[in-house]
Write a sequence for this structure.
């Protein structure tokens, strides 16, 4: 299950991502926002992050204007590794090396075509399992 979240700035791009997920037959849950009305991105970043930590979702996709604020909000939740990605190389690298469980994007930064490619790369790249990468992830999880 993939958790989705956005603020009003990311709402339109989130709808494009939903079309992609439905075309691929992938299960998702939309945690809001549900319109382009003004709202606060931390609410939705944290909802998706908690859904992952609680086992309701395996991965997440978050979108706000730049992707910065919503990724910061998600990363406040212990166990979350949200990566802001504006290109496919970063989406692949963060899965391979960081085992990121959330990809964040900025609707004012990437267009729908690129966003779908970023999501596709993120969802279809497995963690490498290389010992040095796991060691670094373990270090991130330390208090």
């Amino acid at each position: 299950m993939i958790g989705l979240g956005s603020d009003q700035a990311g709402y339109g791009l989130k709808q494009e991502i939903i079309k992609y997920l439905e075309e691929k037959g992938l299960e998702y849950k939309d945690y809001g926002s549900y319109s382009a009305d003004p709202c606060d991105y931390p609410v939705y970043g944290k909802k998706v992050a908690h859904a992952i930590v609680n086992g309701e979702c395996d991965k997440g996709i978050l979108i706000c204007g730049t992707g910065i604020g919503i990724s910061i909000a998600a990363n406040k939740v212990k166990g979350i590794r949200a990566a802001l990605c504006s290109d496919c190389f970063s989406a692949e690298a963060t899965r391979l090396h960081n085992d990121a469980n959330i990809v964040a994007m900025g609707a004012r930064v990437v267009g729908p075509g690129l966003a779908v490619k970023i999501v596709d790369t993120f969802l279809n790249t497995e963690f490498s399992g290389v010992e040095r990468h796991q060691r670094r992830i373990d270090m991130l999880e330390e208090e």
User: Anything to note?
Assistant: The CA atoms of residues 71 and 82 lie 6 Å apart. The domain at 2-141 is CATH 3.40.1400.10 (Ribose 5-phosphate Isomerase B; Chain: A,). The chain has a mean pLDDT of 97. The chain is about 50% helix and 15% strand.
